[in-house]
Amino acid sequence: MYWEIAFVVFLAALTALVVLLIPIVLQLKESVGKLNQTLDTVNKDLPEVMSNLKDLSGNLTNTTVKVETAISSLAEIEEAFTHQIKARLATLGSALSTVIKLVGVLSGKRKKK
């Protein structure tokens, strides 16, 4: 008799568990379906995205090369410009030194008279 009551209680608990699990299983099935749709969309769009990334990477590499070339050219121009300015300033300094000496000599001669 006790076994029969225990068996009925066990069956009632098992039935309640199954009834409670049905909505969970249905929700899980719906979630898996949505996940499959999302994965299908991602798999469909992924090659295009990868192609765009490859193009962007190529464009970035080309731009980087162009910027490096421009910076190198600017550095060469700056170096040449600096060299020319230093050379002209040195020439100007020598000329001014000569003029100052000449003025000194000429002013010295005038004082002697």
Structure description:
The protein has about 110 residues and is mostly helical. It contains one helix and no strands. It has one helix spanning about 1-110. The radius of gyration is 46 Å and the shape is rod-shaped.
Summarize the topology.
Elements: H1 2-112
List keywords for this structure.
rod-shaped, 113 residues, 0% strand, mainly alpha
Quickly describe the structure:
The protein is mainly alpha-helical and 113 residues long. The protein is built from 1 helix and no strands. It is 98% helix and 0% strand.
The coarse silhouette is rod-shaped
Computed Rg: 46 Å
Total DSSP helices: 1
Q: Number of DSSP strands?
A: 0
Helix content: over 70%
Structural class: mainly alpha
How far is the first residue's CA from the last residue's CA?
152 Å
**In percent, how much strand structure appears in the residues?**
under 5%
Q: What profile does the largest beta sheet have? A: none
Mean pLDDT: 91
Q: Are there runs of 5+ residues with pLDDT below 50, and where?
A: none
Order of SSEs: H
